[in-house]
Amino acid sequence: MAPWTLETISLTMPQLGNRRRTVRILLPPRYHCLTDRRYALLIMQDGHNLFDPRTSAFGMHWRIRETMESLSAAGKNPRIIIAGVDCNHDRGGLARLDEYSPWVNDSIEQEISRARGVDTKAGGEGAAYLAFIADTLLPLLRRRYRTIESPSATGIAGSSMGALFSLYALYSRPDLFSVCGAFSPALWFAKKQLAVFVRDRFRPDLAVYLDIGTRETSDANKPDFPERYLRDTLELRDELLELGMPAANLKFVLEEGADHSEHSWARRFPGFLLWILNRFSMGNDDSPSHRM
Questions:
Q1: Stretch 251-264: mean pLDDT, rounded?
Q2: Per the structure, how many domains does the chain have?
Q3: What is the CA angle 97-99-101, rounded to 5?
Q4: How far apart are CA 39 and CA 32, in angstroms?
Q5: N or C: which end of the chain has fewer CB within 10 A?
């Protein structure tokens, strides 16, 4: 069985002061040989954590390549390209919070202990980061790789703050994305702002994968974090349904005992992947799912 292959590119981000950013692209087996095939596209945040424990911030990764190769070995062969964008590692990773939220949290040092004495507020660059994805990254991926150029075959996903951003991106740019994956969303960062944003821009045709564990935390020194993560995610699920989201367009997963880590997201990623491939097949004639 031919392997899935990983390519790496480095881009300038003109929307964010010409910062440099690494993007990691996972390509299906024989991609460069099967030149008549086109592929769905999934853009993910925290790309350094997705494919290799050696590049991961915490020494563990999502095992995405391993998942894809297991599916290929089982004869399913998902027709999808996955592009992972590294986060902003500056200021000990706190700059990541800036890029992943269009809204400012004015009391970040009260929310997470690691921000104390470093930052009093965070966020505010999410719109510029989305502009980078929409106007710089996505056009490059379309030019360089044979993707299906339709929102019905394009998704965006991430975990924690990356999940918050992915929800924002979905409802900001339905002309680009039809589905998002929100793994353990850090809704605490901008809960009210996101709720208003989703209500104002809600569309029943967009699809959301949403999951949460019962032991999630972003600060071990704050015992209320697991309850906040769980409550906020359940409230978002209920809000989407109350707004009129069809049950078929919302996939919700609650994992008992799961924590806020790449190990947990790796366990849930295969279910998410199969679900979005089915979503893509419903919206595009050149669908990947029946060839999985």
A1: 98
A2: 1
A3: 70
A4: 12
A5: N
- Rounded Cα gap, residues 251 and 15, in angstroms: 33
CB atoms within 10 A of CB 120: 13
Q: What is the pLDDT of residue 76?
A: 84
Residue 291 pLDDT > 70:
no
Q: How far apart are CA 264 and CA 161, in angstroms?
A: 16
Q: How many CB atoms lie within 10 A of CB 174?
A: 14
Return mean pLDDT, the chain.
Answer: 94
Angle at 148 (CA atoms; ends 41, 7), nearest 5 degrees: 45
CATH number at residue 230: 3.40.50.1820
Phi, psi dihedrals of residue 278, rounded to the nearest 5°: -65, -40
What is the domain range of residue 277?
Answer: 5-291
Q: What is the pTM of this model?
A: 0.95
Please name the residue that has the structure tokens 């981000």: 13
Q: Give the Cα separation of 25 and 84 in Å (integer).
A: 6
Q: Nearest-CA neighbor of 255 among 236, 272, 230?
A: 230
- Assign 3-class secondary structure to the chain: CCCCEEEEEEEEEHHHCCEEEEEEEEECCCCCCCCCCCEEEEEEECHHHCCCCCCCCCCCCCCHHHHHHHHHHCCCCCCEEEEEECCCCCHHHCHHHHHCCCCEECCHHHHCHHHCCCCCCEECCHHHHHHHHHHHHHHHHHHHCCECCCHHHEEEEEECHHHHHHHHHHHHCCCCCCEEEEECCCHHHCHHHHHHHHHHHCCCCCEEEEEEEEECCCCCCCCCHHHHHHHHHHHHHHHHHHHCCCHHHEEEEEEEEEECCHHHHHHHHHHHHHHHHHHHHHHCCCCCHHHC
pLDDT tier, 2 (very low <50, low <70, confident <90, very high otherwise): confident
